[in-house]
């Protein structure tokens, strides 16, 4: 492997020069463990990147993918189709909150976000409410790397050099409050931050806003759990102003919070939901966007007979191989009861995450379900990330926030090992 050239691959969201000076190269993964190029085992503390909820190296998915490639490797889904995408849509529709049973496929979360916005615009166009062109998002959110997601997103480093932004996007404040530091689960304070949406509706005219998009738990920024009552109030304000509520559940979907989706965990349903990542256990890129049937039907009914109703899609929308991977993944989630397992594991997981409270390097700890974060004192993130990896634990970092989201298959023993490595490394940070 010494001949491996690292120059040509311009890596995404990576400190390329730093990485290439001391690469962390992994060659194998099984269960909750990666093996690096030198044979060192590295515990996967974040299910790849919130993708591999059933653990790595699942034979059932590999077999389903291999079979599908040999049966029918590709079909466009433009005016022709094959069963896997329909089977998957039907299956997902059953997992969604009631009424959200029309599913559009994408290749990623970023494309799912674009799709959700276009579905909202198409809906209001169909209803003749063509002034609804604005979108409301939230500070510290992450909605992917496309221009729409970059504009909606609220992480300044992801947007500051990109002048090209979508017009008509307004941001609510984020929900991280000083008094909620070290809150486990839903913080008590902060429901009133949802009133930002009402103020925006009053400032811009509620009738000019198509949708409000939020991550139920803001993930990439370092796990901001919604305060008690916050999502409930957003829902009310959306309803009062005819604004669609979009949940970006790219991280919170597929058992991460101990239920199928965050919508069920918090008991507040959106109108449109974006999913990706763990849909296929990370094996094949795929996203799925669920919309309320009324939204779908309005768009259908507005188009003349025989015409394309929603002029949107991707070459790989509903790709049969991705759909086969997703169906096999959902079988594993069901057969192994992984969403319930996540609910049962959550208290031990959160005990482990909150055991970091009190270490001098740790400024905050947050978490819910099987999703947790520790915020380090400013500037410590990059070095701690490398030190953790060297000690045998992979953690996803955004700035100084380390994010923990192990596979839902992780054992108590592996979780304890994760805690040991974390406390040991953070103690020296
Ligand atoms: C909440 C959220 N939305 C969207 C995305 C973008 O997904 P993708 O990288 O698959 O385009 C991510 C990725 O981490 C995400 O966390």
Low-confidence stretches: none
Strand order of the largest sheet: 4-10-9-8-7-5-6
Instruction: Report mean pLDDT, rounded to a whole number.
Output: 97
Percent of residues in beta strands: 15-25%
Biggest sheet architecture: 7 strands, mixed
Q: Provide the CATH superfamily of the largest domain.
A: Type I PLP-dependent aspartate aminotransferase-like (Major domain)
Order of helices and strands: HEEEHHHEHEHEHEHEHEEHHHEEHEEEH
Q: Give the beta-strand count.
A: 15
Identify the overall geometry. Answer: globular
Q: For this structure, what is the CATH class of the largest domain?
A: Alpha Beta
Can you describe this structure?
The chain is α/β, with parallel strands linked by helices. It has two domains: 130 residues, Aspartate Aminotransferase, domain 1, CATH 3.90.1150.10; 273 residues, Type I PLP-dependent aspartate aminotransferase-like (Major domain) (Aspartate Aminotransferase, domain 2). The strands form three sheets. Strands 4-10-9-8-7-5-6 form a seven-stranded mixed β-sheet, sandwiched between helices. Strand 11 and strand 12 form a beta hairpin. Helix 4 runs parallel beside helix 11, helix 7 runs parallel beside helix 8 and helix 12 packs parallel to helix 14. The protein is globular and about 65 Å long. Bound molecules: pyridoxal-5'-phosphate.
Task: Indicate the topology.
Elements: H1 16-21, E1 26-30, E2 33-36, E3 41-44, H2 47-50, H3 59-71, H4 83-95, E4 102-106, H5 109-126, E5 134-138, H6 147-152, E6 169-172, H7 195-204, E7 209-214, H8 230-241, E8 244-248, H9 262-266, E9 272-275, E10 287-291, H10 293-302, H11 320-335, H12 338-354, E11 362-368, E12 371-376, H13 381-390, E13 393-394, E14 396-398, E15 401-404, H14 412-427
Parallel strand pairs: 3-13, 5-6, 5-7, 7-8, 8-9
Antiparallel strand pairs: 1-2, 2-3, 4-10, 9-10, 11-12, 12-15, 14-15
The structure holds pyridoxal-5'-phosphate.
């Amino acid at each position: 492997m010494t001949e491996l050239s690292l120059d040509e691959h311009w890596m995404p969201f990576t400190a390329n020069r730093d990485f290439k000076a001391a690469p962390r190269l992994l060659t194998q993964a099984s269960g909750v463990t990666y093996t690096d190029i030198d044979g060192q085992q590295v515990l996967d503390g974040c299910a790849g990147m919130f993708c591999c909820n059933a653990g790595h190296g699942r034979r059932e998915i590999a077999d389903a993918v291999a079979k599908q490639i040999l049966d029918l490797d590709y079909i466009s889904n433009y005016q022709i189709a094959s069963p896997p995408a329909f089977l998957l849509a039907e299956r997902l529709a059953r997992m969604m909150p009631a009424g959200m049973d029309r599913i559009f496929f994408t290749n990623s979360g970023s494309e799912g976000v674009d799709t959700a916005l276009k579905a909202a615009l198409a809906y209001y166009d169909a209803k003749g409410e063509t002034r609804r062109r604005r979108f409301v998002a939230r500070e510290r959110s992450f909605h992917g790397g496309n221009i729409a997601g970059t504009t909606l997103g609220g992480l300044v480093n992801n947007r500051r050099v990109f002048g090209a932004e979508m017009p008509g996007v307004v941001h609510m404040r984020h929900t991280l409050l000083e008094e909620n530091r070290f809150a486990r689960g839903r913080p008590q304070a902060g429901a009133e931050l949802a009133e930002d949406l009402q103020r925006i509706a009053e400032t811009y005219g509620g009738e000019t806003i198509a949708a409000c998009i939020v991550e139920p738990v803001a993930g990439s920024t370092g796990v901001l759990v919604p305060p008690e009552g916050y999502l409930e109030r957003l829902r009310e304000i959306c309803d009062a102003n005819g604004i669609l509520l979009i949940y970006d559940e790219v991280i919170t979907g597929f058992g991460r919070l101990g239920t199928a989706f965050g919508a069920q965990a918090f008991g507040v349903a959106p109108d449109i939901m974006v999913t990706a990542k763990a849909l296929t256990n990370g094996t094949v890129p795929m996203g799925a966007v669920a919309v309320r049937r009324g939204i779908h039907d309005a768009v259908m009914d507005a188009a003349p007979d025989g015409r394309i109703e929603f002029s949107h899609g991707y070459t790989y929308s509903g790709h049969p191989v991705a759909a086969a991977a997703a169906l096999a993944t959902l079988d594993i989630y069901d057969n192994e009861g992984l969403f319930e397992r996540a609910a049962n594991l959550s208290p031990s997981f959160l005990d482990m995450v909150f055991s970091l409270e009190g270490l001098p390097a740790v400024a905050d700890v947050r978490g819910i379900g099987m999703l947790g974060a520790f915020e380090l004192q400013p500037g410590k993130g990059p070095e701690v990330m490398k030190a953790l990896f060297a000690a045998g634990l992979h953690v996803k970092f955004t700035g100084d926030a380390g994010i923990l989201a192990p596979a839902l298959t992780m054992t108590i023993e592996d979780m304890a090992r994760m805690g040991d490595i974390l406390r040991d490394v953070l103690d020296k940070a």
